[in-house]
Amino acid sequence: MKRAVVYPVSKNDIALIRYFERSNLNARIKGCVAPYGSGIVGNDLSYVDNRENMGIMIKDDVVDLFDEFDLLIVTEGNENEPKHKLTYLTMLEAIKQHKDIYCFMGMEEKLVKKLEDIADLNDVEFVYKYKQNKYDTFEYEENFRMEIFEADVPIVLIGGITGTENEFEVLLGLTLALRSKGIKVSAISDNIYASLYNIVELPSSIYKAPVEPKYIINYLNKKLKETYLKEQPEIILIQAPDAILRYSKYVPNGYGIETYMMVQGIYPDYSIIGLQAQSDIEEFPKYIAEDLQVRFGCEVIGAYLNNNIIDYMEMGINNTIEVSYVEKEKIDEKISKMKCETKIPIYNLMNEKGMNELEEYIYERILK
Fold this sequence. Notes:
Layout: E1 2-7, H1 14-18, E2 27-33, E3 58-59, E4 71-74, H2 85-96, E5 100-103, H3 109-121, E6 126-128, E7 155-160, H4 167-180, E8 185-189, E9 200-201, H5 213-231, E10 235-239, H6 257-265, E11 270-275, H7 284-295, E12 299-305, E13 308-310, H8 312-318, E14 323-325, H9 329-338, E15 346-347, H10 352-367
Parallel strand pairs: 1-2, 1-4, 2-3, 4-5, 5-6, 7-10, 7-11, 8-9, 8-10, 11-12, 12-15
Antiparallel strand pairs: 13-14
Helix pairs in contact: 2-3, 4-10, 5-6
């Protein structure tokens, strides 16, 4: 089994790292590295979103770890910041040190070609995993017969009220838990790490393509049909591509339009919703369950409580959803109070106990 280092690490990579040893890379995490100035160097990885200790200390220099790993995972990074030349130079040096690389970071074609050529000369593997179609129009059929395919197995939508509730981590954890029980699970997501776990990866550009919505819906429905016929699953899990509803009239947060389009092409029977640890969240499960029943036609059968909360000051400045994190100990306390207000089961999925409880519930509720 290869030893891997993840760089540059951020909260967006938690799902990848949490379940890394169950990916198809046949590797284990040796370390994580973040650049100086990130504010997380020298802390346990759990520091990035205030969860339970993960036992991985964040370091500040990949070069110092060259003797300790065989595989470098270069993450997508923060798309709001320019790509640093340092990351390219780090990859260049890693290849010369005979390290394999999986790169999820977008780069110019000439740089990718140079890295591929140098990797060939050094007899190492350089795999460029970044979605080339991330900002391009996806391929679609202009002339098609509008006929919706419906799978004869339960489809479960996993989505959050703001789109920041670790939806991919939940989808991934639940997929792996059910598969470990011998259940044939298909999962569909637009997360860039999806294919590492044999999850069907959608191009994230599809919802922003300059085409009529019917082409997007047809593409999604075809993807569902292809997946169903190829994998013959007993259950299908799908990840909402954005928030499942409008947040407010001041910060609409995308209005939930992308998720609405998705469920027209991949029609869910059930949903599991991600909630935030706001002080006024107790009434949300009932409200959202009623809303999704009308808009998506699916029954809310479960919910999970995340430890993030809206940062209203940042939101007011940027007019976008910004979050901060509460102490992890407050989650179970909050869940206990919420259970008095709703019949919908609510879980803490930031630990394996909660994930296993949800997997058992799904099995008993839908599959048994």
